[in-house]
Structure formats: structure tokens, C-alpha cells
Amino acid sequence: MFCFQCEQTAGGKGCTNAGVCGKKPEVANKHDELTCTLIGLARAASGQKTTPETDALVMQSLFATVTNVNFDPQDFDAFIQKVNEEKNKLGGAEDFAPEALFHGDPDIVSLRSTLLLGIRGMAAYAWHAYVLGKQDPQVTACFYKGLKAIGEDHSVDEWLELLMEFGKTNLACMALLDEANTSAYGHPVPTKVTTIIEKGPFIVITGHDLLDLKQLLEQTEGKGINIYTHGEMLPAHAYPEFKKYVHLKGNFGTAWQNQQKEFDNIPAPIFFTTNCLMPPKASYADRVYTTSVVGYPEMKHIPDAKVKDFSPLIKQALELGGYSEDQYRTGINGGNELMTGFARNTVLGVADKVIDAVKGGAIKHFFLVGGCDGAKPGRNYYTEFVKQTPMDTVVLTLACGKYRFNDLNIGEIGGLPRLMDMGQCNDAYSAIQVAVALAQAFECGVNDLPLTLVLSWYEQKAVCILLTLLALGIKNIYIGPSIPAFFSSNVRNVLVEKFNITPISTPENDLTAILAK
Ligand code: SF4
Ligand code: SF3
């Protein structure tokens, strides 16, 4: 096997014996086979109209190969078979050779992999929009075009052009998902979320899929079961549609990498709607439920349906009964309240206040400290960075990296909290909209704003977002905890030269350098 798609890859180079994530060689090899078969499908589809079923299969297959989504070899056999069937219906074509996927000239492997990993990330977002009935032809076409391009030879300049074009399409995809979520559930509003777990039966729901949450809330209403969000599901509390459910109580635990500790002996079922799933420990394996493209051998799976049937989860939640006393749990810094809901509508709604505060000197700088969390000890950087930001600065955040600091109270500026959670990783769209609006208000470019992006990455959704930011011409991004292993030294040099991407160093050094500008 060879896999270097995520930040925790072995030795910072690539997993070759087994995945640090728990992915077995058999599954890794099936990921490659599936990818190469998808390239064959994209070749066959060239110049033809595809059906919504084929489009859905392409998105699901790509999504399933994202880190911490699916560990079940049988699921991949089924995907490979279906993709082959669809390819043959379209007249057939030769697949890409799996041995060529990650081998050859290091720069070409790097560029090819970057596009592939970005496409995998975008497939997750496109899928969430798709289940809410939203598709954008430009986004759908990009999967076929991108996969086909991955199987072809290109010059370095052509690859870079493909990557920038992809980045722009991913912006359209995030816009599509934003539209899907806000039209279904309303615009998020600032919301305080408790970390206290009340006694009695409960279910923990994790991942990014809001439709799964909606259906779970409907089916558990009035049954004496409380629902707690986990990980990337936290921002759901801020949507008006979800506020209607009084049994949506609060947030359980912190970011994904702590799940094996936090779910140990939990008296409740845990429902994984997407990544990040870690190999379950025996103490809670009988309570793990997966759905959609998420899978793990022997774990219970809620089958796809227009309305999913959560009765096994509900039954088990009632049987387990939850805690016998309220649990006073906290975030990692000891706080027991998390604020969320500062998506674009909220922030742009107070744009006048923000602009006045910048003009009057009350706000000197904005930081976007966001992205994925992970297990590396160096990720403590992000906690320290936020703690050390001066009082006349604002910290915007999004995605699961925020659990490093989202229970901290870092004060207010002019009636606004200094720390504002914009939502899930896909809500990077909100952050981009806010940055563009500020740039318009100040009649300057985004790069001229007193704004610095300090990003943390782990999996492939972060890759597609990074490509979007670069395609928008956003420079001076700080990235950590390490530079992706799939960036060859030459590709890395190009990114530094063209975009001044900077690896994080220490919070003190980086803050001094940023604020000195
Ligand atoms: Fe290794 Fe990450 Fe690939 Fe898992 S997803 S096999 S940890 S590089
Ligand atoms: Fe987190 Fe897995 Fe990426 Fe959506 S849930 S940001 S790591």
C-alpha cells in the first residue's frame, strides 16, 4: 500500500505497511483500484451526458476514500463493481493503472495527487448538497473532467492551471452547500451550547451531515432521548430549524482524535454520519452506528433511504439509559459553554459595526484560525496562538480545529465576541464571503486587509479549501502543523513563491511577524 493523503501519514512521508489511521493495506489498495476505475469511468463518460445516478455514485465513491470515512473492504468491492457497471453502460474505457497513481516524477506525482485529494474533499461537500436536492452542473462536470485529467500527462503549468480551475469550482461547491443548508435550515444565529450531559438516555451524533441530524431529531422527539452533537456537528445548534427541537441539548466531547478516550464505556449509541471515524475500541464498539458512505467492518450500519430508519439506535439508547447523574463535562481548557453561529449572515449583519471598529482603531487585525484538528502534540500551537492574540484583534474560526480553544472566553470588542465560530469546514465559504465584503467596504483587495489566515489541516477537505483560497489569489497563509507530504519540494517552492505560504513556527514569532506588517 501507499497512502500519503493526510497530515498524520507515517514519518511525514507515506503509510506503506498500514495506515496510522487504522486503514489496512487491503483497503488502501482497494481505494487505489476504485480511483483508477473512476478514471476509466470518466474517460468513458467524456462527451456523453451522465445520469444523476452515475453522478451520485462518483461522488459517493470519492467521498468513501477520504481519510477516516470507510475501512470496510466489502464496501469498496461494491463500489468498484458499480463503477465498472456504469463505465460499461457508457461504452467502457481503459482504467488508469494503480501502480502509476503515486509513482513517477515526484513533481508530477505531487501535482496529480493534489488534484485527486482536492477532488475527494469536494466530493464530500457535493454529496451533502446532493442529499438536500442541490446539484451544480459545473461542480458535477468537474468530477469527470478532473478524474480524466488525473489519468493524463500534463506540463507543470497545465497541472497548476487545472488546480486553480478546480479551486474555483470548489468555491462554487461550497456556495452550493451553503445554499442547501441555509435554505433547508435557515441562517445560523449566535448560540451558546452547553457541554453538560444531562442524566437519562441520549444519542451522540457526529460528522457533517445535517440531514441525518434532522431525521434523527424527528424520530427521537418525545421519546425521552436527548441528542448531543459531537465534532463537526456542533454548528448545527445555531440553525433555526434545529432550535425547534428541545431535546437537541448540547455538545459531547471535543474533536475527532479524542473519540477513543471520550467514547470509552459511553452509556449511549454514537452515530457517525461522515468522517472522522477511528477504529472503535471494544468498550463501545457495540454502540457505533455508521451510515451513508461511512463504514467499518462488523459495525452496525443505518441503510440509505429517503427517510432513514433509526429505530435500532433509539432502542439501544433507551436500553443503555445514559448516565444516572448529570455530567459536568468541559472543553479542553475547562470551559463548559461553546459559542457558535457566526456564519456569513450574522457577521455581515453587523458589518457596519465591524467596519466602524476597524476605522476607529478598536479592531486592529482579524485572524482566521481554522481547519481540522488532529493528534499531533504541535497542534497546541493553535490554542496558544488564540490565547496570545492581542485584545484589539478578532479571531474567526471554523471546522473541528476550534476545539483547541472554543471553550475559552477571550473577551469582547464593541459588543462583539472576540472569538467567532463560523461553522463547519465547508463554512469556509462564509469566511470568504466576509473577507470579500470587508475588502469591498475598504476598497482594497483581500490581501490588503488586516486579515491573516492561520490554518490547520488534516484531511482532504482541507486540501480542496486550500486550493480554493489559492485560486482566489489569497496570499500569506500560515499552515500547520506540517506541510503536506504530497507537496514535493518543487511544488512547495512554487507555492511559497507565488502565494507566500508559510509553515507555522511558534505563536510568539508568528504573531510578532504578522502584526509588524
Ligand atoms: Fe496514512 Fe493518512 Fe492514508 Fe491513513 S489516510 S493510510 S494515516 S496517509
Ligand atoms: Fe474535522 Fe475530520 Fe477535517 Fe470538517 S471532522 S474538519 S478533521
UniProtKB/TrEMBL annotation:
Gene3D superfamilies assigned: 1.20.1270.20, 3.40.50.2030
EC numbers for this chain: 1.7.99.1
Cofactors named for this entry: [4Fe-4S] cluster; hybrid [4Fe-2O-2S] cluster
Primary location class: cytoplasm
Family matches, as Pfam families: Prismane
Record's subcellular location: Cytoplasm
Keyword Iron appears in the UniProt entry: yes
Residue positions, PTM Cysteine persulfide: C372
Coiled-coil regions listed: none
Catalytic reaction list: A + NH4(+) + H2O = hydroxylamine + AH2 + H(+)
Keywords: 4Fe-4S, Cytoplasm, Iron, Iron-sulfur, Metal-binding, Oxidoreductase
Chain positions recorded as [4Fe-4S] cluster binding sites: C3, C6, C15, C21
Entry's cofactor comment: Binds 1 [4Fe-4S] cluster. Binds 1 hybrid [4Fe-2O-2S] cluster.
Residues holding hybrid [4Fe-2O-2S] cluster: H208, E232, C276, C372, C400, C425, E459, K461
Xref: InterPro entries: HCP/CODH (IPR004137), Hydroxylam_reduct (IPR010048), Prismane-like_a/b-sand (IPR016099), Prismane-like_sf (IPR011254), Prismane_a-bundle (IPR016100)
HAMAP family registered for this protein in UniProt: Hydroxylam_reduct
Protein family: Belongs to the HCP family.
Protein name: Hydroxylamine reductase
Species this chain originates from: Dehalobacter restrictus (strain DSM 9455 / PER-K23)
Name of the gene encoding the protein in the UniProt record: hcp
